[in-house]
Amino acid sequence: MNKINAIILAAGKGARMNSTKPKVLQALSDKTLLQHVLIQAQQLCSQVFVVYGFGGEQVQQAINDDSIKWVQQVEQLGTGHAVVQAMPQINNDSISLILYGDVPLIEQSTLKKLIAQAEKQGVALLSVILDNPTGYGRILRKNGKIQAIIEQKDANIEQIAISEVNTGIMAVNSGLLKVYLDKLDTNNAQGELYLTDIIAMAVADGKIIASVIADNEFEVAGVNDKVQLAELERVFQKNQATKFMQNGLTLKDPLRFDCRGTLSFGQDCEIDVNVLIKGDVSLGDNTLIASNCILKNAKIGNNVAILPNSIIEDAIIGDGASIGPFARIRPDSNIGEDAKIGNFVEVKKSTIGKGSKVSHLSYIGDTTMGRAVNIGAGVITCNYDGVNKHQTIIGDGVFVGSDSQLIAPVTLGKNATIGAGSTITKDSPEGRLTLSRSKQISLKNWNKPIKKN
Ligand code: UD1
Ligand code: CA
């Protein structure tokens, strides 16, 4: 097999995006458009060239990959001219695979077919049949054999009616490609050097153009504006959701599920509507993610219930735990087995021991909590003195009464009980009741104020 070079065209400005970012840096799921193409190209090709123009520095910085060969196209004089820029660095006895930085969902299997055909026949072209071919180059065939590509702007009425169009993606023997690129001219409606003209040249040379027709429109769809970007995002999400469901994940509505990262899961997991997955998330067996949750870089065990409207980031959730509704688990938190984090509870950089419960309206930060602890409603660990963060240590079996403040650094000994409404500034001993409140009094000579006019 010959060496394969990818030449990714990415010099267009993408004015219709109405953005300060170059088009190929717009995001689809968790990657830029160009990254999607690069991933495919890098799996198949020994060298990857990216032809850049507008915003080149920004693109190179964002992609930050030393293995890529960046080629500048100073003026955008057409797709043929763009490919020419890479050719001096490419050996004749190789295959050049032409891809586009704004066509992100092209698949391996399709490209492999195209390359295999080019190995045999020298030139292989990827086309697609469209209900509405407007704007695209049309494929001209004679007796079924590809003869040429005619751009919309150069086409006659008969040609405009053809529904088979050029995707722009092709694989060509590099030596042949060089010969034909040298012969391109600008005798066309747009005054450009059309890459597409190499097809008629090869035919004139007696070559038979190998034809691959894309199975899926989405694979060859380009992104020119935010509407098309959103459409392809949906396609990407739907395809991904389909794979998850085929592997056993229950998605209540695959159209209301987004994964911008990687998700792994055990058996019998269920995800309700409007859940967003980011980064690396794993679910054990039999775990439920209720609606409106966001999970980012989370390792979630077996038999866990993440109840509605909860947000979990960079955290571990143990088997059998219950989180939410409306809970926020922030980075570096480890929620133990069978623990419960209830509504309006925020946990940050804390370990919660097995079976402990923080059920309502609390902030737990920089805390190490033992097992079987019960934290009453409205308890706050005061971890910040305005300058530094401090630790709170809570022993096994502790009970903290509602609306207490634990002023860190502070330690509550095993099985300690804290009376409700206490402000705890000193360590509290094991097994004892500790409280800090003023005694309750009722004033005898007090009268309710009277409203003044
Ligand atoms: C091109 C094809 C057309 C095909 C269509 C598919 C040619 C002459 N026409 O038309 O047959 O149906 O794509 O979308 O090839 N680019 C550069 N440098 C340039 C010109 C273009 O890098 O000088 C890049 C653009 O950034 C873009 C891609 O090449 O990603 C296609 O260019 P564009 O001008 O959009 O080509 P079309 O007119 O759409
Ligand atoms: Ca285009």
UniProtKB/TrEMBL annotation:
Its cofactor is Mg(2+). Acetyl-CoA binds at A377, N383, Y384, S402, A420, R437. Residues 1-226 are annotated as: Pyrophosphorylase. Its EC number is 2.7.7.23, 2.3.1.157. Mg(2+) binds at D102, N224. One of its GO terms (biological process) is peptidoglycan biosynthetic process. It is found in: Cytoplasm. GO terms for molecular function: glucosamine-1-phosphate N-acetyltransferase activity; magnesium ion binding; UDP-N-acetylglucosamine diphosphorylase activity. It catalyses: alpha-D-glucosamine 1-phosphate + acetyl-CoA = N-acetyl-alpha-D-glucosamine 1-phosphate + CoA + H(+); N-acetyl-alpha-D-glucosamine 1-phosphate + UTP + H(+) = UDP-N-acetyl-alpha-D-glucosamine + diphosphate. Binds 1 Mg(2+) ion per subunit. One of its GO terms (cellular component) is membrane. Keywords: Acyltransferase, Cell shape, Cell wall biogenesis/degradation, Cytoplasm, Magnesium, Metal-binding, Multifunctional enzyme, Nucleotidyltransferase, Peptidoglycan synthesis, Repeat, Transferase. Residues 227-247 are annotated as: Linker. In the N-terminal section; belongs to the N-acetylglucosamine-1-phosphate uridyltransferase family. In the C-terminal section; belongs to the transferase hexapeptide repeat family. Catalyzes the last two sequential reactions in the de novo biosynthetic pathway for UDP-N-acetylglucosamine (UDP-GlcNAc). The C-terminal domain catalyzes the transfer of acetyl group from acetyl coenzyme A to glucosamine-1-phosphate (GlcN-1-P) to produce N-acetylglucosamine-1-phosphate (GlcNAc-1-P), which is converted into UDP-GlcNAc by the transfer of uridine 5-monophosphate (from uridine 5-triphosphate), a reaction catalyzed by the N-terminal domain. Homotrimer. This is Bifunctional protein GlmU.
